[in-house]
Design a protein that fits this description.
This protein is mainly alpha-helical. The protein contains five helices and no strands.
C-alpha cells in the first residue's frame, strides 16, 4: 500500500471527533484550571510512550510506511499538547 502525502495530513474536521453522546457528557462537567495541566500531562505520557516503545521499535525503524504514520501521530499529539498549553494561558490570564 502506497501512502499518499494528502492522506498523511488531512484537514481537521472537528465535528468528526465528537458524537452526540460525548457532547452531552462534556456539558455536565465544567472546565476548571486543573484540567489544562492534567490533559497536558496525559498527552506527555502518551507521547513518551509512543516515542520510546513504538517509534523506536525495530519494525517501525525498518518500515518506512509505519514510521511515517507513527511520526505523524507523534506530531499531532505534540500539536495538541501545544494547543492545550496556549488554551491554558489564554483562559487563566483573564
Amino acid at each position: 500500500m502506497e501512502l499518499e502525502e494528502s492522506n498523511l495530513n488531512p484537514e481537521p474536521d472537528t465535528q468528526a471527533y465528537f458524537n452526540p453522546d460525548i457532547e452531552s457528557m462534556l456539558k455536565l462537567e465544567p472546565i476548571n484550571p486543573g484540567h489544562y495541566l492534567e490533559l497536558m500531562d496525559r498527552l506527555h505520557v502518551v507521547l513518551c510512550t509512543i516515542n520510546d516503545h513504538v517509534f523506536y521499535h525495530p519494525l517501525t525503524l525498518q518500515n518506512k510506511e509505519v514510521a511515517i504514520l507513527v511520526e505523524n501521530a507523534i506530531e499531532k499529539l505534540a500539536e495538541a499538547y501545544q494547543l492545550v498549553g496556549s488554551l491554558e494561558e489564554s483562559n487563566t490570564s483573564k
